[in-house]
């Protein structure tokens, strides 16, 4: 009972600090902007720990954060092997292939107004479909190792990136295009100097959507057959053994990897599209 | 309207590619089967055939090519086979039959819609909270954005099993996944929408001496409608994907996800493919429906669709 009371107290304390910080005079400083969400996140973890202890929740249903941290410490090698198999091989290879293919098709389609008008609706339609359902088919075709995961990921990221790139390449004003024409610029100089740069915000939007899809695709595809390594494999087998701390450890790794992947894309975007209004 | 022809061309291109791919994908299987049935196949040993690519084998056995389009257990079924299977399982069976895709479709659709409704409702409430409370904005919003980068969908099957072990089964666990997935797009979109009135419009309301609720109902809420619809279209397809993934490796017996898996495990590729396409059609219909409602609503409100 003491744990529960302590949990409620921690929650009230965390919220009170945040109210003070967010409504206080220093609320717009960088440190306050970072501190408030961090305190919120930390409060949730601490309350979770205390509630699990206080209500004596079975670790088979919900392990405490300390159990998960302990597991991450003790199974570092396994987690690293899973990370390499799923993220570095499956997700990353598929992401690069899918993005490159989408980019190439977008440039090709862009040469014809007719094709652009055909590809945008079809691509948008395909992006909304449950493509992850193709996972069993790809596993059957390409075997259970990472190649089939890369294929699922490639197909999943292909359409969002394609649609965004095609839309981006169209996003130049008539004035800008006319200016290029007065410079006697041909197709390629116009593409590289005007249209690709102005398409960059759109392309990065597609690439950012793709980061999450890549992770989902790689992990879900592993549920349908994988060698005895990989995050999806580990999640489903650990689950079978009721080792929920391992499942949560993989969740933590997946969350960190997903956020890092997204973060890297945002950083590259900031470097590349520093001129865009949304970055200033 | 003027993009109908280009769209049809692109679709025809995809279909053409599919039709061509059927030949090399199935050629080895077809050649083995044809030899067992007594037909002449070159080269005549399976090991020699393994060394050839699908295209090479097809060129040496031109007379077998038609068979690749009518193979019972193909690696890649031909489009007309999938269409035939879909017509048969949608119109050819009674709706209550376990073999009817309409039945399986409903098993998937019901939790999707329930979850979507829950997720959207909660998402809108949280967005209002975020817009009006600085503390919530500063503490919850960053996590709402981070949560988008976490592949939580990959854990859907586990959530189903955990809830199942606690005695919660049926519609609700799948709805929970669907709700979670539609929740965050709605939060992010609605926050953006509720903040979309510019300073000039807010100032105008202040000069009218409008109260806070008036500002909400008369300015912020209407201004957020286009953003809400954009989020709804993302949310409903995410909900459907979530429900299907939740059905995949959990031993579910009904629903599109279960059908995809059953076809895979019992060597009936047509069943999997028909379920996949039916799921795609359902997603398209749902998104299309919201697009239609969006256009009608915005027209009534005197706005342009984004």
* Structural classification of chain B: mainly alpha
| CATH homology group of the largest domain in chain B | MetI-like
Biggest interface, chains and residues, is:
A-B, 59 and 57 residues
The total of beta strands of chain A comes to 0
Radius of gyration of chain A: 24 Å
Low-confidence stretches of chain B: none
Number of domains of chain B: 2
Structural class of chain A: mainly alpha
Using the 3D structure, state the CATH architecture of the largest domain in chain B. Answer: Orthogonal Bundle
Task: Report low-confidence residues of chain A grouped into runs of 5 or more.
Answer: none
Question: What amount of the residues of chain A lies in strands?
Answer: under 5%
Second CATH tier, the architecture of the largest domain in chain A: Orthogonal Bundle
The chain-level mean pLDDT of chain B equals: 85
Which features does this protein show?
heterodimer, A: 280 residues, mainly alpha, MetI-like fold, B: 306 residues, 13 helices, 75% helix, elongated
Structure description:
The complex is a heterodimer of chains A (280) and B (306). Chain A is built from 11 helices and no strands. With 280 residues, chain A is mainly α. Chain A has 2 domains: 2-57; 72-279, Orthogonal Bundle (MetI-like fold). The longest helix of chain A is centred in the last third of the chain and has 36 residues, at 187-222. Chain B has 2 domains: 4-75, no CATH class; 101-300, MetI-like (MetI-like fold, Orthogonal Bundle). In chain B, helix 6 runs antiparallel to helix 11. Chain B is elongated and about 90 Å long. The mean pLDDT of chain B is 85. Chains A and B meet through helix 1, helix 2, helix 5, helix 6 and helix 9 of A and helix 1, helix 7, helix 8, helix 11 and helix 12 of B. Chain A: Its main location: membrane. Chain A: It is a multi-pass membrane protein. Chain A: This is ABC transporter permease. Chain A: The chain crosses the membrane at residues 34-52, 92-109, 115-138, 150-169, 202-225, 246-268.
